[in-house]
User: What shape does this take?
Amino acid sequence: MSDLDLSKIPDQIEGAPHPRETLQLYGQAAAEAAFLQAHNSGRMHHGWLISGPRGVGKATLAWKLARFLLATPQGDGGMFATPPPDSLDIAEDHPVARRVRAGADGGLLVIRRGLDDKGNLRRDITVDVMRKLHGFFGLSAPDGGRRVVVIDAADEMNANAANALLKALEEPPDRAILLLVAHQPSRLLPTIRSRCRDLRLAPLAGDDFAAALAQVGVEGDSAALAQLSGGSVGAAVTLAQGGGAEIYAALVALYAGIPRIDRARALKLAESAAGKANDTRFAMILGLHDLFMARLARAGISGPPPEAVPGEAALFARLCPHDGAARTYATLSQSLGARARHGRAVNLDPAALVLDMVLQTEAEARKFL
Assistant: This one.
């Protein structure tokens, strides 16, 4: 399978390097330190659950841990043992790093969604894919070293695959370590979670977020993208590729005209979502409008968040002056979201859906002016 066919790689964000090619991890020093401490103490757990929101570096951490485990010899604690490592970093030109990048390290197995009979990605990880564990663990580890398994994402397993993984966690082979990436760990069996040590990753912010964006080649206002993506680099990449910051700015500028918005501007926004070719933009407009409503409601309860675009804080203060307004917007947002999902499911005109959404929001906001 060619890595150029991004639709067939479930753990890669289109337009960004694959996590196995990303050597620098930003903003997750606490998780790295916890793993390194466990390694150096000699109490290395055989199962690790790497959890957190999408796009904050979970897969990048998993690949970093895999490189570290495969490249770092297991010390025997004797007089001539090498000093314990003080970092998880492995040099880019290290043989293990080169093999991992090429997908050619015999000590590493990657479990992810496979392809169906038509060559399309399956919706979940099936037991057939998970059965690779049995054959992998039956092999001798290269040079007597570790065997490492990366499962990305573990919360995409179906029931049979989860049971197969549970058996491996209950009876782990010697020197085998399983790294489970999970966006929604609550979807995993409690027995799987209980047999793993949790590494919880947090959203990125500030310089860490800006540096991570630069690493994947995203240009633009990192502060705005941080607000709109919730600190997720993966979401920021998608927003940057689809002009998300510009769409959100257009929404703020549109609603700044309340009590009467510019109808021509509203129609222009709506028509930009029309047609099958603009389906991705339509979905982004819906998602960003939902985000606008959430930020607006939150402003009425706890004050405006840091601005994603200039003028946002003043607009929120004017449209949502108290918690009663916040509750109204929260209810409206749920209603608009349900209508939009239904409209997409039955192929209603995207432009009409967007325009209706804007006009309903305008009508509700007038009540608080």
In short: Confidence is low (pLDDT under 50) at residues 1-8. The chain has 16 helices and five strands.
